[in-house]
Amino acid sequence: MTPRRAGKGEAAEPDPLTRLEAGLSALVRWNESKHIRTELAVRSGHDLPPSEWRLLEHFDLAAPMRISDVADCLRVDVSTVSLQLRQLRRLQLVEAVPDPRDRRATLIAITPAGRSALATVRAARRELLAEVFAAVPPEELGAAADVLLVVQDHMLAGMRGVPDAVTTD
Length: 169
Fold this sequence. Notes:
2 strands
């Protein structure tokens, strides 16, 4: 889709970063909206706040970690992570495991039930996305997915403090 040029008296097309920010904001609002959260809970049978799903997704991708390391990685306060972990532990979606390098410490790891819950929620989310994008041609949807993966790579590299680490081919 080619952006059109502004005609006489019309505002110019916003710059790419403004458009990217607007698109990402819309995506986050959609994903965290009450309607979508309710629909995901109904379809998946799991109802957690978005922040707890994000934390569970972190544990799905990462090796078991100390709570303080999780907080550092996510750039949030330890108390925030501890609060979010209470519900995940209560539901047995994560568990404390001994740290093999320091028996006095514990690590937090996702459980099989946590992985299963994530798989169910991701499947429900894909169902919703399929409904939303039903009229979008597959090649256009593929191109959008490719762009989002580039955005993800750059944002993750930026979180690690290496903004130039990602290159595009």
